[in-house]
Design a protein that fits this description.
By secondary structure, the chain is mostly beta strands. It is built from no helices and eleven strands. The strands form three sheets. Strands 1-2-3-10-5-8 form a six-stranded antiparallel beta sheet, with no helix packed on it. The protein has a three-stranded antiparallel beta sheet with strand order 7-6-9, with no helix packed on it. Strands 4-11 form a two-stranded antiparallel ribbon. β2 and β3 form a beta hairpin.
Length: about 120
Amino acid sequence: MERGERPWGTYTVLEENKSYKIKRIEVKPGQRLSLQMHHHRSEHWIVVSGTAKITCNGREQLININESTFIPMGATHRLENPGIIPLTIIEVQSGEYLGEDDIIRLQDDYHRVDNGEETLP
């Protein structure tokens, strides 16, 4: 299984084929992923532990255990752990291309913005 370490936590690819990918994502308390979008995939997030703060196209919501949300292709989105325990989600990606290079970062706490400049959150 592919596993990635990131400043915000970890991800593990559980299953993958040409039209979908399933990941387990763990976000450390108080951390968040970049504000980003994808040209070629949509994502469905299911919370299995902790509480997720989701931003999608400017709208924020809290998602608890056994709740989920859908991130449409092209939507600007972010995943954040506002809690004190690790946040674990299952992410189901679907689309014509599922490569990690289909991440367009618009703002990032860890200075990984693609265009070399960070926009303000």
